[in-house]
Amino acid sequence: MRLDLAWTGGGEPRVLEFNTACPGGFLFAPLVAEKMGADSFGRSISPARNRFASFLLRELGPRVAIVTWGSDYAFELDTLVAGIDALGGDAIITDPLRDDGAALARFRPTGLYWKSDPLRLLLAPAAVAATVGDLPSFSPFDAMTFVEDKSFVAYVSENSVVPVGPASIEVDGRCAAELLAWRPREHAVLKPTNLTRGEGIVVGALCTDQDWAAAVDAAVESAGSWLIQERLQVRYDAETGLFGDLSVFLLGGRVVGAMARKSTERVINIGRTGMLQSVVVTDADTDTVERIHLSW
Questions:
Q1: What is the pLDDT of residues 170-182, one digit of tens each?
Q2: Which of 60, 132, 228, 269 has the CA that lies 20 to 30 A from 218?
Q3: How far is 171 from 225, CA to CA, in rounded Å?
Q4: 188 neighbors 181 (Cβ within 8 angstroms)
Q5: Which of 41-45, 52-56, 122-126 has the largest mean confidence?
Q6: CA dist., res. 83 & res. 81, Å (int)
Q7: Rounded Cα–Cα distance for residues 69 and 95 (Å)
Q8: Which residue, among 116, 102, 107, has the nearest Cα to 148 in the 3D structure?
Q9: DSSP-based three-state secondary structure for 117
């Protein structure tokens, strides 16, 4: 899992999203650290190279089928296959919807890694069950369905003894007047709960009052699921015009590394205009290290 973090006005970290579906940062962070010589500036805290591949082999056995299940192919999967091969395992990337499971049957995997849109999996539960059979799978289906939903951050926050995520209110079942009164638009962000790559997000501070009210009205009338979150802060470098955040990687319940992201947009995502950045612990001029050396 990847925890994407931002900060309150008082500098306290909060979780914006629990991300279980996108391994790209996990796979590329150590490569970026090596390419940019991160350890020459301090101690890199990127995940160890092939750490994710090693975890999958331990959990799923020596023959791993990476199942895309109707989703667009993600280029990081080739990197994952290469990592599994380098550790003595074997892996294929396959979409059972395209060939009726023929490649999967020929490969005879010992386990399945799902790189799939969770909503697609819910459309055909019987077919998913037939594909899985008795094979071990990762990520677990509960992680890919309700954990990926952004409203789960709100649920965790409401039921935690310590602050976890930003204050949130779900749109479903509420009128526009109640939602508009919850927070001033300058301190609020409207989000679809189950889209990715920053799609559909409306930042109140970037809207007029009229545009914000129209966006909230549209969410109320929408058949989809939406929530409004208290707006958090991301870092901003006035010299480069880039916004930045921090992501922490968890594997098997343990923190195993971190990365940063930078973007020309306030909504930071590698799939949009974002770029991955190494994180180092150093006594040097961290501003210079961060800005000049470690972006990619």
A1: 998 899 999 999 9
A2: 269
A3: 7
A4: no
A5: 52-56
A6: 5
A7: 5
A8: 116
A9: coil
